[in-house]
């Protein structure tokens, strides 16, 4: 099944879920398309399995670190390791899918917000959500638009150097939540 979800993730990310068929996934995974139907039933179930697999990786990264700044950096690294996730989410949103159709309310960002704002005032909780929204925007935006940004800036340095700076900004964002240290 891992070969199927990996093939589906790559195809969904590169082409968008609407443009990918079960037969495309089967061909990429080098299996019979009946196997995809037997394991997942429908393309929508396969897409959900792919998104769930990515979500598990992000949740594991959140639970791995106690330090909030390190957690934000680790989430950036997970997005770097899993470029298809950002592309799939973008494809779904651009295709008109509502977020509640593919994102669980108890998903990673909510879990992260609950983790850092536990026992805090409503105002501090709202501040935590704003910081998490900014970090998620920076993370998703960089992973979608890095080539454009680098070109538009006429940046001739190493992209890794810019990514290091973004990781540092993630750590700095973490300090904006009252009662949270880097």
Automatic annotation (TrEMBL):
Protein known as: HTH-type transcriptional repressor
Ranges of residues in domain HTH tetR-type: 1-58
InterPro entries in UniProt: DNA-bd_HTH_TetR-type_CS (IPR023772), Homeodomain-like_sf (IPR009057), HTH-type_TetR-like_transc_reg (IPR050109), HTH_TetR (IPR001647)
Keyword DNA-binding: yes
Domain of life: Bacteria
Keyword DNA damage assigned: no
Ranges annotated as DNA-binding: 21-40
Keywords: DNA-binding
PANTHER family tied to this protein: HTH-TYPE TRANSCRIPTIONAL REGULATOR RUTR, TRANSCRIPTIONAL REGULATORY PROTEIN
Gene3D superfamilies for the chain: Tetracycline Repressor, domain 2
Organism: Henriciella pelagia
């Amino acid at each position: 099944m891992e070969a199927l979800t990996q093939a589906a993730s790559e195809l969904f990310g590169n082409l968008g879920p609407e443009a990918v068929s079960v037969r495309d996934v089967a061909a990429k995974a080098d299996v019979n398309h009946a196997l995809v139907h037997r394991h997942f039933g429908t393309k929508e179930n396969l897409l959900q399995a792919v998104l769930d697999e990515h979500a598990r990786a992000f949740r594991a990264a959140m639970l791995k670190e106690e330090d909030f700044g390190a957690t934000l950096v680790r989430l950036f690294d997970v997005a770097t390791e899993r470029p298809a996730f950002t592309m799939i989410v973008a494809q779904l949103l651009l295709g008109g899918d509502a977020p509640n159709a593919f994102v669980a309310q108890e998903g990673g960002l909510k879990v992260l917000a609950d983790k850092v704002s536990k026992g805090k005032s409503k105002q501090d909780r709202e501040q935590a959500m704003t910081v998490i929204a900014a970090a998620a925007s920076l993370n998703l935006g960089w992973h979608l638009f890095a080539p454009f940004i680098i070109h538009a800036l006429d940046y001739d340095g190493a992209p890794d150097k810019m990514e290091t700076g973004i990781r540092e900004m993630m750590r700095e964002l973490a300090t904006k939540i009252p009662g949270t240290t880097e």
